[in-house]
Specification:
single chain; mainly beta; 9-stranded antiparallel sheet; two-stranded antiparallel sheet; 1 helix; 39% strand
Length: 166
């Protein structure tokens, strides 16, 4: 379900002036490199979705005022972007480069950082299965042996993945 699509640079402060919004680039782990200065403001879009990740798309000009724009060559897959007031985004696809010989433009598509929290199937992890490789059996001091002489192990308590406040 899509909530809204909005241009990024149409933000106005309480005095009616346009607030300057910037996009910062960072290495994975939110290690900031700097601000992208060749962003084409008319191409910036932020799609905020209710049941999916937000998507940030924009174009970056390679040349600005006769010089290569800052961090143009560092824009690549898996780099992270910060949009102040909105959040962090990850470039999950290799940016596409287009040009006509006079102007080179890189199109970037990034998804909000909660994409890292997507559900993955974990193979081989057992929880509350009653086997010796199960997570509750591996917890410290959580097992006891049966008294029937069969060397069967049992867990005292089930493993909790939350803090019990009661």
């Amino acid at each position: 379900m899509r909530i809204r699509t909005q241009p990024l640079f149409d933000n106005y402060n309480k005095f009616g002036y346009i607030d300057s919004t910037y996009i910062a680039i960072a290495k994975p782990g939110k290690r900031l490199l700097g601000v992208l200065n060749g962003v084409d403001e008319s191409s910036c879009r932020l799609d905020i979705n209710l049941n999916n990740t937000a998507v940030l798309t924009f174009d970056v000009n390679r040349i600005l005022d006769g010089e290569v724009t800052s961090f143009y060559n560092r824009i690549e897959q898996l780099m992270e972007l910060e949009l102040p007031g909105v959040g962090w985004f990850k470039i999950n696809e290799e940016p596409t480069i287009s040009g006509d010989g006079n102007k080179e433009v890189m199109s970037v598509r990034a998804e909000s950082l909660e994409i890292e929290l997507a559900q993955y199937f974990i193979k081989g992890m057992e929880i509350n299965m009653g086997t010796t490789s199960s997570a509750e059996m591996l917890a410290t001091d959580n097992t006891y042996y049966a008294l029937d002489g069969t060397d069967s192990q049992f867990a005292w308590t089930n493993v909790k993945f939350y803090r019990d406040t009661t």
